[in-house]
């Protein structure tokens, strides 16, 4: 009995996890009511960045890839180092190599002005 209970609990948790996964659908219109201008803000900013620097499109894709490379696509690559925190931004494969942070900062500023506190940095980067 003492062994069965944890096994049942583990099964129940697995079932709940699978239900949760099957309900967690990605959606391209997730912000359509909470931040209706999101995609047009991002599109305009990215088009503008690419038209003044044609490599920027590839650089933004690479920035996203390197974000996802360490522990998931969580925008952690955007974090600056502090006195007591060393992040991904200055890690070997990224330091002086990743570009486009200013494009993301610009988009974040515009998105926060349009819909404060609604869109995550991870979603904006994606
Ligand atoms: C890290 O340093 C900042 C100030 O630079 C301070 O606010 C923060 O509490 C520190 N965090 C830890 C975990 O020591
Ligand atoms: C990142 O690059 C800067 C400038 O070249 C350098 O000063 C710094 O030590 C590097 N950081 C790491 C963690 O390698």
TrEMBL record:
Q: Which domain of life is it from?
A: Eukaryota
Keyword annotations from UniProtKB, A to Z: Calcium, Disulfide bond, Heme, Iron, Metal-binding, Oxidoreductase, Peroxidase, Signal
Q: Write down the InterPro entries for this protein, in alphabetical order.
A: Haem_peroxidase, Haem_peroxidase_sf, Peroxidase_pln, Peroxidases_AS
Q: What EC number(s) does the entry state?
A: 1.11.1.7
Signal peptide: which range, if any? 1-24
Give residue ranges for domain Plant heme peroxidase family profile.
Answer: 25-126
Active site annotation, chain numbering: 66 (proton acceptor)
Q: Which GO molecular function, any one, fits this protein according to its record?
A: metal ion binding
The residue ranges crossing the membrane are none
What cystine pairs are annotated? Answer: 35-115, 68-73
Instruction: Kindly list the cofactors needed.
Output: heme b; Ca(2+)
What PROSITE patterns does this protein map onto? PEROXIDASE_2, PEROXIDASE_4
Gene Ontology biological-process entries: response to oxidative stress
Site Transition state stabilizer: list residues: 62
Enzymatic reactions: 2 a phenolic donor + H2O2 = 2 a phenolic radical donor + 2 H2O
Q: Does the keyword Metal-binding apply?
A: yes
The family annotation for this protein states: Belongs to the peroxidase family.
> Does this entry carry the keyword Heme?
yes
Q: How is the cofactor bound?
A: Binds 2 calcium ions per subunit.
The residues listed in the UniProt record as binding Ca(2+), with positions renumbered to this chain, are 67, 70, 72, 74, 76, 88
Q: What is this protein called?
A: peroxidase
């Amino acid at each position: 009995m003492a062994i069965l209970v944890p096994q049942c609990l583990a099964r129940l948790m697995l079932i709940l996890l699978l239900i949760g996964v099957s309900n967690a659908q990605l959606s391209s219109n997730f912000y359509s009511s909470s931040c209706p201008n999101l995609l047009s803000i991002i599109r305009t900013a990215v088009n503008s960045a690419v038209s003044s620097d044609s490599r920027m499109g590839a650089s933004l894709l690479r920035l996203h890839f390197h974000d996802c490379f360490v522990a998931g696509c969580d925008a952690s690559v955007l974090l600056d180092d502090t006195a007591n925190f060393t992040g991904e931004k200055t890690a070997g494969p990224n330091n002086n190599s990743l570009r486009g942070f200013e494009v993301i900062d610009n988009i974040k500023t515009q998105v926060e002005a349009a819909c404060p506190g609604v869109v995550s940095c991870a979603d904006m980067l994606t």
